[in-house]
Amino acid sequence: MQSRSRYPSSRYKVTNRILIVVAAVALIGWGLGAKKDTITIGVVDLDQAVTSTNEGRKAREEFDRKKRQAESTLIPLMDQYKEQLEAFEAKKFVLSDDARFQKQLDMAELQNQIENTRKEITGQLQVDRERLIAPLRNKLVKIVEEVGREEGFSLILHRGAPGVMYTRESLDVTDLIIEKFNKQG
After folding, report:
1. What is the pTM of this model?
2. CA 77/CA 146 separation, integer angstroms
3. Does residue 1 lie within any of the structural domains?
4. What are phi and psi of 76, to 5 degrees?
């Protein structure tokens, strides 16, 4: 009887190694066949760029205004809850069991209303923020592409992209992107 091993056969290992070597040779050959130009890499922080542009500041101010306005709808509910809680705490020993239970239900209902309003506000604020920021981000991406072509970059990475763990400050083109964005207005 032939025993089966849990580990791949040596033929499988050899095949994988051959494929890796072929891939490495192909990549090296492709790299050698490319232009003799130097590779220029840049890094951009789009989040910083969005908040630093003139339009980004206006969008942030608009978002902050909407946030304050939305939060102002919560304040009366929270004040009402606080008043009910204080009244309940002051009278809970003199209330009948039924009256105490009813007050607790009223406060729980108000608490649920506050939580639902908070969730609704949070969802709406996320939508509002995206409506304000998405057009700016799209314009910035186009400007990054323009700068890449005009300045001869081989590659421009997003600072927050997965896999980018460290970059030298000299590679950062964020200020250049912001400057060009503000000029285009």
Report:
1. 0.63
2. 50
3. no
4. -60, -40
